[in-house]
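Quick one, tokens below. Sequence please?
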């Protein structure tokens, strides 16, 4: 019961959110942008996506619980204030200037999460959720990206 043919596609909106996160991760000097983008994405998952998995997918509570563990680790890596407060790696950028790199442990964890969403959460929801739920999730994903 996927959202194909019903307008808004949750898979497309989720992919756009993932592109935004990856783009923020490539800006070496803007840790605050990455932190803000990740916090919005975690909030989207906790408020909308994981409840839809829990309520609409057989065994969804276990799947959502597993994902919550990873989300909590991402939040710990983000730190209490922002990514910018965490120790960062410095590298020589173009023209020999020092640039701040995003913490690699956080970026690795984020890639694990995004891959999990693509390989597990999205296919489960597309197979089990109604098109109305998928359209609602697509709306929330788009709004999270636009904030």
């Amino acid at each position: 019961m996927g959202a194909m043919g019903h307008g808004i596609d949750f898979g497309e909106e989720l992919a756009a959110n993932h592109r935004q996160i990856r783009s923020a991760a490539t800006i070496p000097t803007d840790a605050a942008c990455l932190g803000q983008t990740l916090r919005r994405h975690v909030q989207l998952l906790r408020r909308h996506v994981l409840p839809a998995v829990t309520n609409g997918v057989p065994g969804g509570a276990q799947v959502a619980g597993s994902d919550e563990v990873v989300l909590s680790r991402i939040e710990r890596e983000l730190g209490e204030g922002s990514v910018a407060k965490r120790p960062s790696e410095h590298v020589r950028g173009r023209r020999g200037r020092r640039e701040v790199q995003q913490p690699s442990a956080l970026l690795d964890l984020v890639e694990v999460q995004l891959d999990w969403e693509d390989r597990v959460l999205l296919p489960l929801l597309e197979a089990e959720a109604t098109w109305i739920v998928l359209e609602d999730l697509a709306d929330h994903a788009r709004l999270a990206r636009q904030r």
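The first strand starts at residue 89 and ends at 92. The radius of gyration is 16 Å.
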